[in-house]
Each structure stands twice: as C-alpha cells, then as structure tokens.
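User: Run a structure prediction on this.
Assistant: Running it now.
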Amino acid sequence: MKQQAAPLQDTERLNWIDAARGLAIFGIFMVNVPAFNAPYFLYGGEEQFWPSDTSQIVQTIIDIFFQASFYTLFSLMFGFGLYMMKNRLEQKHINYRPVIFRRLLILLGFGAVHAFLIWHGDILLSYGLFGFAMFAFFNGTPKTLLVSALSMLGLLILPLTLGMYAVRSKLGMFNSYEEVESARQNYGEGSLLNIWQQNFADWTYSNNFATLPMLALSLIPMFLIGAYIAKKRWLHDPDAHLPVIKKWWVVTGLLFILFKAGPYVIGNPEWFQLLQDNIGGSASAVFYLLSVTLAYRSSGGGKLLQPLSWVGRMSLSNYILQSIICFILFYSVGFGWYGEVPPLASAGIVILVFSLQVFLSKWWIHTYRYGPLEWLWRTLTYGKVQPFKRTDSQAS
C-alpha cells in the first residue's frame, strides 16, 4: 500500500547533521550582524569607518573563518536535505516532484517576507529560486553531481578573477559616500516606510541581472556537493566511510588555509576575492561539516556539540529570529544602533544572542516536535497539519 508523505521523525535524525546546521546558523549570524548594523559590508569603506587595530583584527578573523564559509555550509546542507527528502519519498513510492516543488514554493514565500520586510540580506529567496535547479540533477550519478559543481564554480571564478586582475589598479576605491549616508539616515533615523524603502533599494542593489548569475553559480554548486555527499552516504555511517572522510577533511582543510588565510600573506588583494570566497569558502564549508562529523564520533565531542544540534533542528526559526532581533536592535523603530556598533561589540552581540538561542532551542525541542516555522513549513508542504506539541512520553 502506498504510504503518505511525512516529515523526518526524531529516531531518523543524525545529530551531527543538525549540529552542522546549528554551526552554520552561528557562522551566518557572525557575518550578518555587521552587515545588518552598518552599510559598509554592502557598499564598502569599513576600513575608513572602523579604522582601529581592534576593529581590523576582528574583521580579519571574520573574513578568514566566517565570511563565505557558513552560507556555503548552509547551502551544502540544503542540497543534502533536499536529496534526502527525495530519497525518503521514493522509498515510500511517492512522487517526490510535487512535494519538493511545494516545499520550494513555500520557501520562496518565507524568503519574500524576510527579504522585503525584515532584511535585504535574505538567503531563503535565493534558495527557493535556485533550488528548482536540483530537479535536473536529482537522478544524476555522484560523479555527475561533483563534476557539475566544480565546473560551475570554475565558470564563475576563473574568467572573473582574470578580469579583476586586469583592472586591479582600479579596485579598492571607495566612492559610495552617498549610498552609505542614505542607509545611515533611513535605517538609523527614518520611519518604518523609510526602512522598507531602503531595504528594497539594498536588495535590488545586491540582486540584479548582473549579480544573479554569480549567485546561482555559487549556490547551486554547493547544493550539488550536498547532494553528492548524501548520495555517497558518508554522513549516514561515518565509521564505514572513515578513510574517505579523513581524506576529504585534510584536502579541504588545506584549501581552506591556502585560499582563506593565504591571501593575507600577500596583502589580501581585492582581485583575489572570488578565489578566496568561492574556493576557500566552499572548501571551508566541507571542512567544517566533516569536522563536526568526526568530532561526534567521540562521546566528548558529541556532548560538546550537542547545543549546536538544538539550534540546527530549528534552523529556519532561529535564522529568522536573528534577523528580527537585529531589526529591533539596529533600526530606528527599535533601539536605533545602526552604524554605532563596532566590530568587536558586534561579535559580542552574536555570542550573547546565539547563547540565548541555544537555551531557547533546547527548551523548545524538548517541548515541541518542530520549531514554529519548521512546523508551518512541513504542514504546508505535506498538505496536512503536523503534530506540534510532544506528548509526555515523547518529551526528553
């Protein structure tokens, strides 16, 4: 008899996958808060506006260990999750296409609300849009997935890096004073309508016909690498695949160091940025994922990383909650701290808020089956109200 489509159950979860999602949420937050707090990430000029040695050190640490490492990890996990969903549905003899189509369509809705009402730096809209490309690859071989991913990354990186190198003498000139001042006024002093107008202007600046191909060629490869890892089933039984996991861990770790930290040896030239973010960032995403997986093989490592798994199990809710908190902290309709928080204080806000999210997530997951937005997403995806609150026997 044909079974009904249903979400993943608690007994089917892999804790190290949830922990990797939780780590991604932390890393994304570390990059997002400075971008939420000031216009310099989008329009440049942070060296001029935050010139102190402390600020420069903090920004360097974020650039090496966080920038382009965690949205890529989240993208990898997104592709991993989509493939696993497709696989579970097929095992139940259910046509996966309409279910995943609805899932992506609903994600577009979440992304639209987040992007236009809360923050222009939203990634959900892009995931929902480019996630449809996965239908062309779901039935591909692991080799096809990996070759396609690396080819897309090469298509993006090589010609653009050569072009940037050719005009390297003209790079690094900051001339966006008007854009910076407009953002500071609208976000820091404007009305809610001013905030939304500036948010839309920033979103269109980041997402236009010139940047969308670049975004697609950076996200889709990570979706494919996630599907590749899911198809190889490395993370389902790490002990059975330990040699290949360790091999990839070493290779991606070396690429991480070479392309993320290495540029600082030669002055961190701007023309090298695509190589730094796309090769170094992609390698670091795989390195972080495999590091979490290997750490979970020991009881001590599992206990240490368990708090990340609580956050990761409700990653969508935590991601949106972070943006809501930043909206309140930085914009004029809240505390109005926009442009006033230097990098070190920004990192402090991240650690404080994320720590609170860990405790909130633990309580929530022990009381409810899903995060609030995860529950809504599943309910709409499967067309059936999902059970929400745990029974006494299910609470842990």
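The CA atoms of residues 249 and 287 lie 5 Å apart.
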